[in-house]
């Protein structure tokens, strides 16, 4: 599936990374190797950090929009994001279509 990149989004506009609770966390937890064994505990530890993060929404949005396949982003695992991404893309397409229609009607 091709990545749809919307250049109209300025991800650093609000600089959500400044709010990231993981800025000083052990990145090993956020990018575990595999999804079994000790990786399960690392993913859970990363998700606990995400639960306290003020940037969880823009982080997840960024991860979905840029198709971040590895690691924990926005409180979601790789598998959870794969499932979320289909519905996110459908909603995004719908929003873009509505914006396009609105622009046409305004002209
Ligand atoms: S939601 Fe999680 S991965 Fe994203 S910035 Fe916050 S702590 Fe980091």
From TrEMBL:
Annotated coiled-coil segments of the chain = none
Q: Does the keyword Iron-sulfur apply?
A: yes
Its cofactor is:
[4Fe-4S] cluster
Query: What GO biological process, any one, is recorded here?
Result: negative regulation of DNA-templated transcription
**Where's the 4Fe-4S Wbl-type domain?**
21-83
Does the record carry Lyase as a key word? no
Q: Which InterPro entries match?
A: 4FE4S_WBL, Whib
Q: Name a GO molecular-function annotation.
A: 4 iron, 4 sulfur cluster binding
* Keywords associated with the record: 4Fe-4S, Disulfide bond, DNA-binding, Iron, Iron-sulfur, Metal-binding, Transcription, Transcription regulation
Give the record's family classification.
Answer: Belongs to the WhiB family.
Q: What is this protein called?
A: Unannotated protein
Which organism does this sequence originate in? freshwater metagenome
């Amino acid at each position: 599936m091709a990545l749809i990149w919307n250049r109209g989004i300025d991800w650093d506009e609000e600089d959500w990374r400044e709010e990231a609770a993981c800025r000083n966390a052990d990145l090993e937890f956020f990018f575990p190797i595999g999804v079994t064994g000790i990786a399960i505990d690392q993913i859970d530890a990363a998700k606990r950090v995400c639960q306290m993060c003020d940037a969880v929404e823009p982080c997840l949005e960024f991860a979905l929009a840029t198709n971040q396949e590895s690691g924990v982003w926005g409180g979601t695992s790789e598998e959870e994001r794969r499932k979320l991404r289909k519905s996110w893309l459908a909603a995004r397409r719908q929003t873009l279509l509505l914006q396009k229609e609105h622009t046409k009607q305004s002209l």
